[in-house]
User: Which sequence fits this backbone?
């Protein structure tokens, strides 16, 4: 409100904007309405032009990519700028009331669209037929819990959760403890941690090459590392990824290779937090290193172990890329997330795919509830 | 005391030994892929990658030709040894260490005399495999046997650019949106604030699969399938709960006095956010940015569902080489390395930030 403009009514009662002359009120309002329509419209047109330009895909790719990056990032910044500018043009009380939603609104809207509502929509679709046209009751769930392939899928995921998690956490803990006592700690940890940086598809290629099998015959040399080692030790080369149920373990090994670094890094920092006096005291009492480890270190980092375990359990429940790339779920290596993909995109059965997604959600529900409980505990005065 | 010291040294030796052993297991598969990616495609198929290092193997030093008059279906005699065709083909070791092996089929009538010799480093390493995977045009080159081969390139350079076009905006956009939201939750008052934030905490571990079916329906309706805008939005949606949660934890710990003085000076919320909050949150923003960037670069599922063939990213392109040319190791290994090089550099250079982001976000869905 520019209170400095000369207006007879304002001179009389300068602090009440309601008393503004009707004409002036009218023009400013129209002006505001026009601006508040024009500016977002322009913003929208500019952004839409950018989108069309990007979709047309005729310019050289490098230019397209640069424009895409500038357009995407700049577009979001522009939307905030414009909507905030609009809200600040409103009368003060309205600004105060609406501005929080300028800040919070986009995030909430996007999360609502992409995560919150899909929970309900997928739940509904899970009670419908393949094309979401008919209601089928619980039959998708009946399928999920009785079909032979589905049961095998659940068994495999159980293997992933149990062995994948325990090996990742166990190896991570051992390496963290051992590395803590050496001078080359940083080097060792970097090597174990590095696989975290690469994609599961890339890791899949690396390990597919380790497991590769050429078969028997005169003059044939195995080029896969595992078969070469087995042959050198006097064993027989095998197509490791085709032998159920052991092929599951060869796939799980890849996950251990990828996730041990994560477990190690988190637990390593927890181990460094164990007070030295405590360990010293137990040593003076004559406890061996191993005893001190189990009596003091483990209880001290219990919380961290639980957190890491939970994270990796969730991760292994949703494992997809490795199986998709290595075996496609064939030879009894199928997992829940891959079956979801197959149902939706290969067999075109939205209902069954949705039911499988809901089952995944139910599996992680305890963690959701625990997170909420922790949050409620920690922030009474929120 | 000396015994104590000796014991300590032994235990240190043992610790280092175990760690070195584990590290070798961790490294060797990747080293194998790296070496293979530089070998000639023929060599890759006939011998293991460890053969590039000096080693001893049987090398042909001479040959014995079997006369046409000899019946190859019966016992064959050469160098004073009589054996069947199959035995000859398996190879027969002489007492002086040489080996006699029938090469080829029965009609070849040729026995090679082989001697165990040291073979040095493999020298015919090449960049052809990288040329092969990176380019999108047809290329011709000579293989080890001297034949000219023409192949369609796999166009990973274009996939590399697409990966950049997906990853950079989909890193920055959710961080920007999350920072605004975190500021709103931490410093502004509005009705329903607590309920909304509890909702975000609940969404932290919701599996992606829940969203794929409905969102794909929406995208088909809106024409967003296969577009960059579509995948940015999707990644933004899936990354926002964690981003908002982490940035909220950080921004809510910024000292109140710092902001109050700015409020007294009459600065608006927006100004405070841009000129105070954002600069102060850079450490948290950077940690999450690296975390999110690596996650996006390595993502396969979301790209597979929302981008697909129209704008192929690296993971998608590499996975299709696996699917279509699963035994072409010269392509797979070079392709794998093209896809790994950028995240590895980012990771090794910014490891500390990455670890910080990892610690904060231990419960990502």
Assistant:
């Amino acid at each position: 409100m520019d209170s400095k403009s000369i207006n007879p009514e304002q001179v009389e009662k300068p602090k009440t904007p309601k008393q503004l002359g009707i004409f002036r009120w009218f023009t400013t309002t129209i002006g505001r309405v026009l601006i508040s329509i024009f500016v977002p419209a322009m913003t929208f047109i500019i952004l839409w032009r950018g989108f069309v330009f990007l979709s047309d895909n005729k310019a050289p790719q490098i230019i397209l990519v640069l424009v895409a990056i500038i357009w995407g990032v700049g577009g979001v910044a522009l939307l905030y700028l414009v909507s905030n500018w609009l809200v600040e043009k409103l009368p003060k009380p309205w600004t105060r009331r609406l501005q929080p939603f300028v800040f919070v609104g986009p995030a909430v809207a996007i999360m609502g669209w992409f995560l919150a509502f899909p929970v309900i929509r997928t739940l509904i679709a899970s009670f419908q037929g393949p094309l979401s046209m008919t209601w089928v009751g619980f039959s998708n769930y009946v399928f999920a819990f009785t079909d032979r392939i589905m049961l095998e899928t659940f068994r495999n995921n159980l293997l992933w959760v149990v062995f994948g998690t325990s090996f990742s956490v166990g190896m991570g803990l051992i390496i963290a403890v051992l590395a803590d006592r050496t001078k080359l700690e940083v080097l060792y940890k970097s090597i174990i941690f590095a696989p975290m940086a690469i994609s599961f598809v890339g890791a899949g290629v690396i390990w597919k090459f380790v497991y590769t099998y050429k078969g028997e015959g005169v003059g044939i040399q195995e080029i896969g590392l595992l078969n070469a080692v087995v042959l050198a030790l006097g064993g027989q080369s095998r197509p490791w990824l085709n032998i159920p149920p052991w092929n599951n373990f060869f796939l799980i090994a890849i996950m251990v290779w990828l996730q041990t670094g994560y477990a190690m890094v988190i637990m390593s920092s927890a181990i460094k937090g164990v007070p030295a006096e405590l360990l010293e005291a137990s040593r003076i009492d004559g406890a061996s290193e191993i005893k001190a480890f189990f009596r003091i270190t483990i209880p001290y980092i219990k919380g961290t172990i639980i957190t890491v375990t939970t994270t990796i359990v969730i991760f292994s429940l949703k494992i997809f890329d490795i199986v998709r790339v290595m075996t496609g779920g064939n030879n009894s290596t199928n997992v829940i997330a891959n079956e979801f993909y197959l149902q939706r995109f290969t067999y075109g059965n939205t209902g069954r795919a949705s039911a499988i997604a809901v089952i995944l959600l139910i599996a992680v529900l305890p963690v959701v509830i625990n997170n909420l409980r922790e949050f409620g505990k920690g922030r009474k005065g929120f | 005391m000396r015994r104590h010291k000796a014991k300590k040294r032994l235990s240190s030796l043992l610790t280092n030994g175990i760690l070195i052993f584990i590290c070798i297991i961790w490294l060797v598969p990747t080293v194998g892929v790296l070496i293979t990616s530089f070998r000639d495609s023929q060599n890759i198929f006939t011998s293991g990658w460890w053969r590039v290092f000096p080693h001893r193997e049987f090398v042909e030093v001479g040959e014995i030709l079997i006369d046409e008059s000899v019946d190859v279906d019966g016992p064959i005699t050469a160098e004073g040894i009589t054996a069947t065709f199959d035995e000859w083909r398996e190879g027969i070791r002489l007492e002086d260490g040489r080996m006699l092996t029938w090469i080829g089929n029965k009609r070849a009538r040729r026995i090679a005399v082989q001697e165990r010799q040291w073979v040095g480093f493999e020298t015919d390493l090449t960049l052809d495999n990288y040329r092969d995977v990176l380019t999108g045009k047809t290329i011709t080159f000579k293989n080890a046997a001297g034949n000219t081969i023409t192949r369609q390139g796999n166009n990973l350079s274009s996939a590399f650019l697409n990966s950049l076009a997906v990853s950079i905006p989909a890193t920055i956009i959710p961080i920007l949106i999350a920072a605004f939201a975190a500021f709103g939750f931490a410093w502004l008052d509005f009705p329903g604030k607590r309920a909304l934030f509890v909702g975000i905490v609940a969404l932290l571990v919701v599996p992606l699969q829940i969203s794929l079916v409905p969102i794909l329906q929406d995208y088909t309706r809106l024409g967003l399938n296969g577009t960059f805008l579509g995948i940015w939005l999707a990644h933004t949606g899936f990354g926002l709960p964690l981003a908002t949660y982490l940035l909220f934890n950080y921004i809510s710990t910024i000292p109140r006095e710092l902001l109050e003085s700015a409020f007294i000076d009459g600065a608006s919320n927006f100004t405070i956010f841009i000129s105070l909050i954002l600069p102060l949150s850079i450490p948290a923003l950077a940690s999450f940015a690296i975390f999110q960037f690596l996650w996006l670069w390595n993502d396969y599922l979301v790209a597979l569902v929302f981008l697909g063939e129209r704008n192929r990213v690296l993971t998608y392109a590499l996975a299709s080489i696996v699917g279509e040319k699963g035994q072409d190791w010269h392509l797979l290994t070079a392709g794998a390395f093209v896809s790994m090089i950028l995240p590895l550099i980012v990771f090794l250079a910014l490891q500390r930030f990455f670890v910080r982001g990892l610690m904060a976000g231990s419960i990502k869905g």
Remarks:
- Chain B has a mean pLDDT of 83.
- Residues 55-119 of chain B form one domain.
- The CA atoms of residues 295 and 312 of chain B lie 17 Å apart.
- The first helix of chain B runs from residue 2 to 37.
